[in-house]
Amino acid sequence: MAKWLAKVKDSFTKIPKNIRVLAFGWLVWSPVQAMAGPYTQLYVSKLGASPEDISLVQSATQIANSFSRLLGGFLSDKYGRKKILWIGTLLVAGTYLLMAIAPDWQTYAISNVLNGISLFYQPALEGIQADSVPISLRGRMNAILSLVPGLASSLSPLGGAYLVNIFGIVEGVRIIFFLSFLTGIITALSRLFWIEETITTKDTINASGNFLFSYIDALRKISHETYLLMTTDILLNLVGAMTFLGNYYMYYYLEVDKNGLAILATVGSVVNLLLLLPVGKIVDTRGRNFSITLGFLLGTLSQVIFVLAPPSSWLTLPLLLLSTTIGSVAGVFYGLAYSSLRADLVPKEYRGRVYALWGLFPSFTWSLGALIGGWMYNNLGPTSPFVSSLLLRLLLSPLLLFWYRQLTYKVDEVIRSFEGS
């Protein structure tokens, strides 16, 4: 037992300090946030929002976040990551308090948009994560960063189900948002006291640097592969956002009850959790192309099964469970490969600005996709956005699979050289 504990301690100390601090924050915060996941759309609908209103709220939040990330990315590269990170985290925590006391969906919408603006710190967070890990370990470190909150969050939807069953959807979700406020404060303080700055003075933008020209300079320095990955992100955000009303659809059309939604979310979390470490190693050893391609194909299969699930049938929940399981496997492969590849392609001193730009156009297309999906749900029938999204994904598949091979080739060559040395 003593040897095992010593081995665990040794493995823990080998993890970069910043990764440990980020993991701690997500360990504290993510489980509480995950409790609300299956019920947020239902909460907003109980406050008086229609399906189109729900899509509009999320679209406005995405657009607000896109623009705020531009400022956050600039500040992150100019003044360093740490200050931007902890201040932004504190502001996000405050927005959860506003969501908890919202009397109607319009007030919730304002709170949610403020949440999106407060996430201006995301380029700083993504920059710290990428800066702190070498290329040969990114898949595994990204897996660890997902594993820790996943361990705590895997059963969170069941806790959410307990609260909404006891207090009702509105009061139950209010309690969860208040708890998100408290744990967000703890996360902000941990980042203030323990995060170490990763960008040095020589790496930062010159103090007289112009906001616009600093972004133009960053765009000039990034590779063709980076632009290609951005383009795939834009397309998938547009198509994927059309299915934004998934929980609403399952609850109101497929007639999956509150406990069923919690079970689906829990299964997805557990599958994700079990696969993170082995898939992280695969991403670092088999290369990015294998993992991102497999993730995309499995994600498409998951969506096919979801669309085939009938309403109010004995087959409904089993098919949704199968779709969720396959989708979770897909998400682990695609997500770890994607986040690792993005860090591989962007030079350290430009990550704040490039990551900010990276979120801009995909956010606009996501917002457009969500609005289209909400309109289709209301006007063409509940199944229309999900079927349309699937058909578009199938049409794009040959192009995207070709691009994945192109944009991963150089990185996978570097990874193979590490394996051979």
TrEMBL record:
It is a multi-pass membrane protein. PROSITE patterns: MFS (PS50850), SUGAR_TRANSPORT_1 (PS00216). Keywords: Membrane, Transmembrane, Transmembrane helix. Residues 18-408 form the Major facilitator superfamily (MFS) profile domain. It is found in: Membrane. One of its GO terms (molecular function) is transmembrane transporter activity. The keyword Transmembrane helix applies. Its main location: membrane. One of its GO terms (cellular component) is membrane. The keyword Secreted does not apply. The chain crosses the membrane at residues 84-102, 144-169, 175-194, 234-254, 260-278, 290-309, 315-336, 357-377, 383-404. PANTHER family: C-METHYLTRANSFERASE, MAJOR FACILITATOR SUPERFAMILY TRANSPORTER. This is Major facilitator superfamily (MFS) profile domain-containing protein. It comes from Thermofilum adornatum.
